[in-house]
Amino acid sequence: MSSLGQPVIHLKDVQFGWQPGTVVLDIPELLIHQGEKVFIRGPSGSGKTTLLGLLGGVLTPVAGVVSVLRNDIGRFSPARRDHFRANHIGFIFQMFNLIPYLSVVDNVTLPLGFASKRRENVQSMGVDARQEAIRLLNHLELTDPQLLQRPVTELSIGQQQRVAAARALIGRPDLVIADEPTSALDSDTREAFIRLLFAECEAAGSTLVFVSHDSALEALFDRSVALNETNRASQYRPLGQPEVV
Ligand SMILES: Nc1ncnc2c1ncn2[C@@H]1O[C@H](COP(=O)(O)OP(=O)(O)O)[C@@H](O)[C@H]1O
Ligand SMILES: [Mg+2]
């Protein structure tokens, strides 16, 4: 798979610490190509969420280059990073981060309000935002029309997770980033969810980066990366303890 596409993510000599003088991530190189579905595995506290923050431009590196779609996003202004993220990246968070007072459909269309490119992608499909939200939700097996108008708080965890996936996928972002979105589900539901996510990413041409501590999911993916092998900082500190250098 990796030989097929252009690089979507290229980290080079990236270092990040939460406090000055500490290092949580020290990654000589990480390369992910267009269309890949990559599993990044690491125990709790190993820096998975921190890494996704760098990929999404929520965090900026202390040193090195975080290149996403050939943009050195660490050098963007905060406003430009926010704009880039909204247009190009769909996030599925561990706790889903759905907006409780909005309906299912309104949660899914929400990112389009900040992302002109993703809005245009929906328009070019010849549908409006609402129709596309419903199509995605139906594909993710949320089909009851009444359910789609309810506040998200009335849904089960498994249903909320699929709403979070539809929200990340709407408008065909180049990159979909998922932070342990299956941790609250049983194993059958986990695998079914991942297969639905794969199908939607393939249909949209989106690259998928999925992090988890659960290596049972690893075999489903094109490729897996062990964060503790890629991250040199894991070798010079006890796990989860940022080292003072
Ligand atoms: N907001 C934060 N402020 C300070 N330290 C943090 C913060 N978030 C995470 N860390 C620290 O960074 C390390 C990696 O955390 P994290 O990226 O959340 O790991 P994972 O997602 O693999 O569980 C941990 O030592 C954690 O305590
Ligand atoms: Mg985490």
Commentary on this structure:
- α7 (157-169) runs parallel beside α8 (187-204).
- The protein has a domain at 7-99 and 171-236: Rossmann fold.
- The strands form three sheets. It has a five-stranded parallel sheet with strand order 7-8-9-4-10, sandwiched between helices.
- It is an alpha/beta fold and 245 residues long.
- It starts with 6 loop residues before the first strand and ends with a strand.
- It has nine helices and eleven strands.
- α8 (187-204) links the parallel β8 and β9.
- It has helices at residues 48-55, 78-88, 104-109, 116-124, 129-139, 145-148, 157-169, 187-204, 227-230, and strands at 7-16, 22-23, 25-33, 37-41, 63-68, 71-72, 89-92, 175-179, 207-212, 223-226, 243-244.
- The structure holds adenosine-5'-diphosphate and magnesium ion.
- The site of adenosine-5'-diphosphate (ADP) has 12 residues, from α1.
- Magnesium ion binds next to α1.
Write the layout of secondary structure elements.
Elements lengths: L6 E10 L5 E2 L1 E9 L3 E5 L6 H8 L7 E6 L2 E2 L5 H11 E4 L11 H6 L6 H9 L4 H11 L5 H4 L8 H13 L5 E5 L7 H18 L2 E6 L10 E4 H4 L12 E2 L1
Parallel strand pairs: 4-9, 4-10, 7-8, 8-9
Antiparallel strand pairs: 1-3, 1-5, 2-11, 5-6
Helix pairs in contact: 7-8
The structure holds adenosine-5'-diphosphate (ADP) and magnesium ion (MG).
